[in-house]
Amino acid sequence: MYYVKPSFSHLYKNWVCSLIMNFQDLQKVEQANFYLDLAFRNARKHGEKIYLAHSGEQSSRVRKTEMEKIRKFNETIRDKMEAIIKNFPSIDGMPEFYQELLRTTLEYELVKKSLGAINWAKDAVTLMARKYEQKIKSTRETGIMKRHATEFYGRASSIMKQINRNLIYLEESRQMMKTYPTLKTELFTVAITGFPNIGKSTLLSKLTPAKPAIQDYAFTTTSINQGYAKWGIERIQFVDTPGVLNRQHMNTIEQQAYLVLKYLTQVIVYVIDLTEPYSLKEQEKLLKTLEDYDKPIIIYLSKTDILDLKTWQAAKRKYKAVTNVDDLRKKIEKYM
Question: What is the pTM of this model?
Fold first, then answer.
């Protein structure tokens, strides 16, 4: 099988992108009323300070107070909307793995549209604030000043309520993105795959210091486990993909496993369990589908310690497989 090692420039590009991927720290996105309540509260407190500190005539005090309240209101909305936009990773700047993961778990265009709507609202409220500040500045009657301020708050509130559905969807997106695996796209990656409950997690714990939860029943792996090892000067990422059941419809975790194999993996370690919790025919069928990824495949026989010598040696010859971690490591190193 022909294999091309990723170029340094490709790895460097992904390394730069991976540094900004931090889905676990995405901040909660509140609904419109939350930000409006905060903006009104900040504006009121700020206005009280300005009014008490101003020693001029009544019209001048009211003018200064109303203008400053509008500025504080706008500042609060602007800062909170900017924080949402900056907090979300740049979708187009994501490594390909994460772009595809986002597309398979969320409505990609709706995420971008929602971020655009947040930016629009931020700018619209700012323009509205400047317009009404100017109106109040050129007004002499305190009643009219307050009426202008009331109009501003009403229109600004309307703008924010228009994007409430976008705020709700971004929060739903944030919750989904927090479930994404934190994988290092710049590292040489080895995927350990095969059916559930055949020894993949055990193998991961032998190759790395990682201690994944291992239970004695099928479908144990409900997320993507990973571990890291340093071989000489090289650092390697091992990914224990959830059991790939070769089904037409994959759940979210299986979709993640598929994308790990497609976009991040340099070498696939396929684990075969000769004790046959799944028939060898099924395991061979799944092995055949992995050839479509056009990646080097190393076959590892698990649980050989509970099999008779003749059985596992025959399988070792048949599959050209390895049966111990030292031999597996040597095979992996050939592709590094």
Answer: 0.77
The first and second tokens of residue 63, run together, are 């003018």
Alpha carbon distance 74, 38 (integer Å): 11
Which tens digits make up the pLDDT trace of 104-117? 889 989 999 999 99
Q: Which CATH code for domain 188-333?
A: 3.40.50.300
Q: Which fold would CATH assign to domain 23-177? A: Four Helix Bundle (Hemerythrin (Met), subunit A) (1.20.120)
C-alpha to C-alpha distance for 200 and 163, rounded to whole angstroms: 46
Alpha helices in the chain (DSSP H): 8-19, 32-53, 58-87, 96-105, 108-137, 142-162, 164-177, 200-207, 252-259, 280-290, 309-319, 325-333
Rounded to whole angstroms, how far apart are CA atoms 202 and 222?
A: 15
Give residue 199's pLDDT. 87
> How would residue 263 be classed by pLDDT, with cut points 50, 70 and 90?
very high
Q: Which helix (H) or strand (E) holds 279?
A: none
Question: Could you tell me the CA-to-CA distances from 296 to 59, 170, 229 in Å, in that order?
Answer: 79, 39, 20
pLDDT value, residue 13: 37
Domain limits, the chain: 23-177, 188-333
Contact 195, 225 (CB under 8 A): no
